[in-house]
Amino acid sequence: MRNSILGGVTAALLLTTLTAQAADEAAGSVRYMSGTLVAQKADGTLRVLRPKSEVHPGELLVTGEKSYAQVTMNDGTKMTLRPQSNLKIEAYQFKSEEPKTDNAVFRLLKGGFRTVTGLIGKRGNPDAYSLRAAGATIGIRGTDFSSRLCASKGCADDEAVKPAAPAPKAVGRVMRVQGALVAKEADGKIRKLTLGSPVFEGDTLQSDAASYAVVAFRDGGRITLQEKSVFQVEAFKYDKAQGQENVALRLIKGGVRVVTGLIGRVNRDNYKFRMSGATIGIRGTGFDAWCNGPCAEGAADFGANPENPLDGAGVYVWAGEVLLVGPGGSYTVAINQAAIIARKTGKPVRILTIPAAIEKNDAPRPDSVPVDIEKLFEEVESSGDAGLYVMVHDGHVIVAKGDQQIDLGKGESGFSNDQILARLAETPGFMQDDRLENLEQYDDSGENQNGCVIR
Q: Which of 30, 148, 186, 395 lies 20 to 30 angstroms, CA to CA, from 68?
């Protein structure tokens, strides 16, 4: 009996020792700072931090008045704290050789900071990185975002409040995705799209092999982008209050399944769907379109060979009807019919024997995915109330509160307090702080590389 008790005591002491050692292991270090930064341990012990000082799990990081600090975690995450902020490292585990054990949990108690995430959350478990504040949890999907916890209306403690910044309006959102999907922006930047990610005007969507995605648009229209396809949202304007209705879509390569929304129901000229050398005029309908071979290459003989209609440009209608227009004329394609642009003449011609690959498409029809359009694109005006504000600079975050959640993509902002969780129509001015982005221009002493000393 005595040996059993001693064995239990020894095991407990060993566990306590290992836990203490884990807490003592550095989670990261201070990279840049300007002003004062201290770390408070669980027992209340305070440490004054300097550049290159280590930070540990369980510590509360506190910045002073007019102080900024950038902390780099072991996985490469960079966190830039703004003045008078309290950020606790509740848990942190990172081993380069064990992705499945990754875990990072932070809690924002006061102030705000900007985060550029590292490897945690980008490998292994996508839910390994989270930030908690004011009853909400921010789930990270490999991103760059700012968060701000305001104790007063309009974050009145801010020294200089800037005017609110207009947020880009998502014209669509990813409702289902399998495999890999990215968006190429107008400036050439590439961003990964996941479930809930926003799609913006000018985006070019690209799917990988064995991949597909269903995207819902503001007017209720939807598309399913098939594997190895490229599809561009050239233009999308939909504002019922201002009477704006205009959409221009282009299939560059591969295949897409389309169900049209409200745009074009009244004025058909407001809806344009293009492929190389072909235009599809809609009649309030559902159809599949494809653009392969010469069509995808933009060659002069973009049309299809009747013996192999999928090698070219064509359409198959499963609801309503469409008008297929080519350089050689036009043809009305009725329900359950298919047509192609003939390669030799450029004329639209009906496919009498429809290939099984067209009639039995493996990608889901977009209208088979249930969508609450109003809730999906719901936005509220910022009142500046006290609470948690989140702004996404790049990537994608999920803000959850109880059984509610909102998806925020690049350029979008969200808000949470005891009463609501909402996507904001515009980003509050107090969320914009150039120092959170440009702190690296200062060296370890706080001296600007141009000679100015920050105090």
A: 395
CB count within 10 Å of CB 335 equals 14
Domain count within the chain: 2
Residue 327: is its pLDDT beyond 70? yes
With pLDDT > 90 as the criterion, what percentage of the chain qualifies? 66
- State whether the Cα torsion 427-431-435-438 is positive or negative: negative
Q: 394: closest CA among 122, 146, 144?
A: 144
**Rounded CA gap, 68 and 119, in Å?**
24
145 domain residue, yes or no: yes
- Examine the domain organization and report whether 151 and 185 are in the same domain: no
- Is there a contact between 88 and 107 (Cβ–Cβ < 8 Å)? yes
| Residue 265: domain span | 172-368
pLDDT tens per residue, range 205-231: 999 999 999 999 999 999 999 999 999
Mean pLDDT of all residues belonging to the chain: 87
2 lies in a domain?
no
**What is the per-residue pLDDT across 276-291, written as a single tens digit (0 to 9) for each?**
999 999 887 999 999 9
Which of 82, 139, 27 has its CA nearest to residue 437? 82
Q: Cα(first)–Cα(last) distance of the chain, in Å?
A: 65
CA 44 to chain centre: 39
Last residue of a domain, one of 368, 403, 426: 368
